[in-house]
Design goal:
This protein is an alpha+beta fold. Helix content is about 25%, strand content about 35%. It has helices at about 50-65, 75-85; strands spanning about 5-10, 15-20, 20-30, 35-45, 70-75.
Length: about 100
């Protein structure tokens, strides 16, 4: 697998991960005071089981941290990712 590239597509309110120039997954979000609410994550079936979802979540959370924002993970995938990676606990908002 080629390394995934995560980008924030603000026009569609989602983070996307591209692999070999195709969208392999995305996380939809909405704005919240002080950060973003992650509402839904999806990975294309062709890329499931290849770590694409984890790369996507990490890339989105790294971007939020770099921008001084926090996250409320309403999406169960993102919430579980943060639980498994406590290095992101500091940017997690209370529900």
């Amino acid at each position: 697998m080629t390394d995934g590239v995560v980008r924030n597509d603000e026009t569609q309110s989602r983070y996307e991960i591209r692999v070999d120039d195709e969208i392999a997954g995305f996380i939809n979000y909405r704005a919240a005071e002080g950060g973003l609410v992650m509402v839904h994550a999806e990975v294309a079936s062709a890329w499931e089981g290849h770590g694409v979802g984890s790369m996507l979540a990490a890339g989105a959370l790294d971007d939020l941290r770099a921008r001084g924002l926090r996250v409320r993970p309403d999406c169960s995938f993102v919430a579980e990712f943060i639980d498994k990676h406590p290095e992101y606990a500091d940017i997690k908002m209370a529900p």
